[in-house]
Design goal:
Helix content: 10-25%
Number of strands: 8
Structural class: alpha+beta
CATH superfamily: Ribonuclease Z/Hydroxyacylglutathione hydrolase-like
Largest sheet: 6 strands, mixed
Oligomer: single chain
Shape: globular
Distance between the termini: 33 Å
CATH architecture: 4-Layer Sandwich
């Protein structure tokens, strides 16, 4: 997305960006220490191809981006989105973190994995 000057035009916006190359890429890992904080990095594509969540194990907080929301999940209808990848990633990587984990989404109110596992209509069988 950073290297395509017309990326936002494909989404219907009139913006054209100057392409750039990333200085570094963050990959899925069990431990990434940032400013003394140890995070597990979870690769959960589906909302967008490179979607990551950051789990602070000690504090039991998931910085979920646009993967999981209170009562919803991230959109998958934009370029690069994929419903099955998103829902499978949540089921396989997010839900197993535990019901007590607080989720701070990219926007909207905080929630917990337990509340979402029990009540989120997108996560029901």
């Amino acid at each position: 997305m950073l290297t395509d000057p017309l990326f936002f035009r494909k989404l219907g916006f009139g913006w054209e960006i100057e392409p750039v190359e990333a200085d570094f890429l963050i990959e899925e890992t069990d431990s990434l220490v940032i400013e003394g904080n140890d995070f597990q990095v979870l690769y959960v594509p589906g909302h967008c191809p490179g979607s990551l969540c950051f789990f602070h194990k000690k504090e039991r907080i998931l910085f979920g981006g646009d993967v999981l929301f209170a009562g919803a999940v991230g959109r998958w209808d934009l370029p690069g989105g994929d419903r099955d990848l998103l829902l499978n990633g949540i089921a396989q990587k997010v839900i197993p973190l535990g019901d007590d984990v607080k989720v701070l989404p990219g926007h909207g109110p905080a929630t917990t994995i337990g509340v979402e596992r029990r009540t989120n209509p997108f996560l029901q069988p």
